[in-house]
Amino acid sequence: MPGSGDELAEKKSVEKPVKTKDFAQKLNKNKKNQKNVDNVDALVEEIKSNVTIQPVQEKDEYESGDTSDEEERVNTAGAVPARWYDEYEHVGYDVEGRRIRRAPRADAIDAFLRKCEDPDFWRTVRDPSTGQEIILSKRDLELIARIREGRVPNADHDEYQPWVEWFSREVLATPLRAFPEHKRSFVPSREEQRHVARIVHALKMGWTKSRRQLAEERRRRRERSFYDLWGAAGAGAGAGAEAEGARRLPRHVPAPRRPPPGHAESYNPPPEYLLDAKEMKEWRKLEATPWKRKYTFLPQRHESLRAVGAYERFARERFLRCLDLYLAPRALKMRLTLRPEQLVPQLPAPRDLQPFPTAEVLQLRGHADLVRSADFDPSGQYAVSGSDDGTVKVWETSSGRCLRTLELGEPVRRVAWTPAAGLSLVAAAVGQRLLLLNPGAAAGARRTAAATDALLADAPPASDERMDERTAACVQWQPADAAQWARGVRLSVAHFRPVQHVSWHARGDYLAATLEEGAARSVLVHQLSRRRSQLPFRRAPGRVQCVAFHPQRPLLFVATQRAVRVYDLVKQELVRKLLTGAQWISALALHPAGDNLLVASYDRKCMWFDLELSSKPYQTLRLHGGAVRAVAFHRRYPLFASAGDDRHIVVSHGMVYNDLLQNPLLVPLKQLRAPEPRQQLSVLDVRFHPTQPWLLAAAADGTLRLYA
């Protein structure tokens, strides 16, 4: 351990620089009696040749000129992201809590002009904390260039200077080392943090005041105090309590002004305001009921203002006026200066949204009873209809000629043409049977009909037809016999309950059937290629009204009495539940893009759902005066139609945009006159033509109406 002499030597070294030679001589004297004299001498010689020891100097913290005045110009926001102040006119706060104003921001034009005129523009940077512009010096540019090149920032630093052996395995009497600063000198003090927190809490609670508040109080004491004579809000310090009490009172509402006097109240009124004999007679007649008179006084003419006598009811009227002001309550009412036209949304004109059906152009007659359903083939050349008279008719769309009539013997609840373009196949719901018909040969499409018969003639393997016991108990596939084949029936699927709705998949291989009162077996999915059926539900989702496949994704929409459930057929799970708010759902239709859904109900409403937006209706359309029984979308044009028990078929514009941030545009376009009601029913089904803006309606009077 070094003695007191060493400590004195260290103090002297602080006061005066010590040369390497003197230090080496003292070191040689202290090491004379040691064994390893040669090693120490070698180390001293190396230190002498390479190191110049400088004394430890204490640096003045105010040497750079940093004063309290300059601290106010520095942004003291701390470690706060600068983007928090992007929307404000200031960039932070100073010590006193005052806002530091943001430097004026230059637009692109000013920046371009400065770039052309200012030679120092290329080396001007902006301080993000204060917003000030700083011109980089030559030394700063060199420093940045060295950093970008991956070199040491300090140009005076020698990376390849000879290594100095400060520490060796030899034990020295005087250690040559400097201990680093302790960690607590770099970590913020916890005690100071608690002290600052106590000051902030006292400011928030009002126990202490800032310098600005103290200066404001001193200014108020120097001012003269004025008092409000009538007890309103005072201007001086002595009226603070009274002002606080006045603020708690309701806002004063001035009394309404009396209307100015008219010509009849003049001392010399015009002749037309004076009462003639007839008017005087009516005046005297209303003496018992004076409030019915035209005036509350009798107009009279005087030669001059001096000839006007005293008004005998002056005191009485003033007294009543005072009572009205004292007893009658007054309140402020906010008026909206809006016209009724401004409350109606601005919708485009229907003539700008053409084409759409505007008039009835064709009537298809031939059914003896009401027509339940109708549909077009994929090309739009033919139409098929099913009626309660037990027939299915195939029509030519362009001429309205009936090409073929299929006698089925029972009322037809639903007909649907397959969407597959290469097949001629119609699904018909007849009682408890689902019949697959081929009307193409009689309609003229012989090649398509032959291809369809060849496809259905080949029975699939027995392994594909095998179904579980639960499904086999409620459905049975039956091939058509010779008589049925002659009538156009190709396949028959027998169910244990009557079939009320049929829906095709977009590819034409799957078919969904809805049964009446089927409980958990109300929905069945049939596959034509394998002639196999499936029951997708173990439990009843509710009283099922109809089902529909998604046009692009493996989703199944099941409409119950009050809600629409969406199921994923691949994952076999419920995806979402759409809350319609209706009492009884009647029909549904999917937009060709698959992102929007239209639901009709018997309580005269149509609900438009945006499946990407919410599980509640985007818009509820009340366009009908009766139950809505059918809705349909057009495959090509932004059109949709709805019909029901009233005398109107409503055609509307429904534009769905590719931009997800833009809501669909719904505009009612035209009310088409529906057929006469029969048995309180008017229109039971509507279908759009696949390519043309034509609409086909199945009416209760046994006709089909084509609108174009």
Automatic annotation (TrEMBL):
Look up keyword Nucleus and say if it applies: yes
Q: Does the keyword Isomerase apply?
A: no
Q: Where is the composition biased (Basic and acidic residues)?
A: 8-24
What is the predominant subcellular site recorded for this chain?
Answer: nucleus
Q: Where is the composition biased (Acidic residues)?
A: 60-72
* CDD domains the UniProt entry points to: WD40
PANTHER family per UniProt: RIBOSOME BIOGENESIS PROTEIN BOP1 (PTHR17605:SF0), RIBOSOME BIOGENESIS PROTEIN BOP1 BLOCK OF PROLIFERATION 1 PROTEIN (PTHR17605)
Would you tell me the protein name for this molecule? BOP1 N-terminal domain-containing protein
